[in-house]
């Protein structure tokens, strides 16, 4: 569990969670920044649709017990004052066709969950998923939207700081 939580903490240097309805960045002392994305952002909304439409790929990979696959995480939308907050849930397990995991980010806007809570993921509120396949990111649709908006230099820095390899 600790290894996965450390991975998620380092992974989310740029995108810890998203709050719908705004465009600014929330900086937190000792925590990764949170980038707020407008709820009508077409690229982000399409990324969330793509994630939902491909959740079976994630489920099959999780159930495969492939030793090359690791760090399974799901991003879930939670209600927050004035909108919603999307938070990563790590250490994902599939139990009776439900995803269960541990809240891996310190919430900024929602009081529905807190860091370290064990939850059953609400499938209707999944906004992203990802895992590593031999060190390469699979999924991570919303992360890719943020990453794609960076300059090539910023992308290289982001990848190096977080150990990310994108296919």
TrEMBL record:
**Residue limits of the DUF2314 domain?**
42-165
**Would you say which domain of life the source belongs to?**
Bacteria
Q: What is this protein called?
A: Uncharacterized protein YegJ (DUF2314 family)
According to its UniProt entry, this protein's organism is Maribacter spongiicola
């Amino acid at each position: 569990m600790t290894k996965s939580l450390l991975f998620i903490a380092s992974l989310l240097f740029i995108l810890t969670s998203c709050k719908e309805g705004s465009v600014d960045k929330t900086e937190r002392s000792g925590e990764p920044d949170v980038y707020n994305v407008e709820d009508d952002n077409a690229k982000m909304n399409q990324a969330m649709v793509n994630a939902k439409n491909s959740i079976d790929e994630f489920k099959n990979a999780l159930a495969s017990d492939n030793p090359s696959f690791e760090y399974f995480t799901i991003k879930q939308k939670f209600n927050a004052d004035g909108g919603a907050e999307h938070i990563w849930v790590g250490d994902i397990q599939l139990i009776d066709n439900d995803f269960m995991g541990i809240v891996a980010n310190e919430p900024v806007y929602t009081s529905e969950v807190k860091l370290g809570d064990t939850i059953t993921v609400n499938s209707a509120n999944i906004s992203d998923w990802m895992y590593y396949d031999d060190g390469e990111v699979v999924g991570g649709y919303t992360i890719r939207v943020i990453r794609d908006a960076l300059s090539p230099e910023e992308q290289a820095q982001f990848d190096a700081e977080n150990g990310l390899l994108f296919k």
